[in-house]
Records
---
Amino acid sequence: MKAVILAGGLGTRLSEETTVRPKPMVEIGGRPILWHIMKIYSAYG
């Protein structure tokens, strides 16, 4: 399976975190947002 993960945008609602790191790397529950997205995709093969 191939996927395109759209992670664009200014991240204004996450501005406190996105000044230090890119939005996909902001941590939620101790893991980056990108990790959570990839986990969901891996469930579908």
Note: Residues 16-42 form one domain.
---
Amino acid sequence: MEGKIDNLIKAVSEIKSTQNKLVSMMNSQSEKMSSLTSKVNDLTSKLDILSSDNESLKLRVSTIEDNLNKTNISNFSSSNNLIAEMLDIQSRQKNILLFNLSEPTSLSNDSNVDDLTAITKIFEFLGLQIKPTSISRLGSRSSTASKPRPIKLTLSDQKEVFSIFAAQNKLKTHQAWTNLRFSSDRTKAQRDFMIHLRNELLRRRENGEPELIIKYVKGTPAIINSKNV
């Protein structure tokens, strides 16, 4: 009887020991699961951060691409504007403008003939054998006779333009033509630049630089000191 009791006690002890081992194993597995869960959570957090960084990077790349596209469009537009300006300048190289020549009172086609006759006499006075290929008054006719429209003359060669500029000072010796003035046929950009130069010249003269003038340097107008001419 006592042997059975001992065996029973021993069996109970073994069961308790086994239970303890199982509890220990379960606790260990629980700890491992907790650790794994923590790692998974940490990995999930890092993935969220990585995803956020990726979205930020995509936004930056998109912004850079947009800026590049805008820059390319701007550069292309600037290049086109420059080419158009150069072509416009080239198309005007054989033109010259004449200011302050009185307009004929007639509104018929004869007025153009009268202008051509007057211009021919002016060139003869300047000692120039130049015959324009075409002439035309610019703008609408003014009701005020004291404000004649400028005349655009198209010549056969650009050299004739230079010859007129070189000789035009002689007009000041002619009583009827002393107010006549020839000028280049400028583009809008060139006219705007000349307006800017004249305003700048006026400002600097008023600020104590009376010796400044506008002079063409290698074909481009610039403000220079008259003492250096």
Note: The first strand starts at residue 95 and ends at 99.
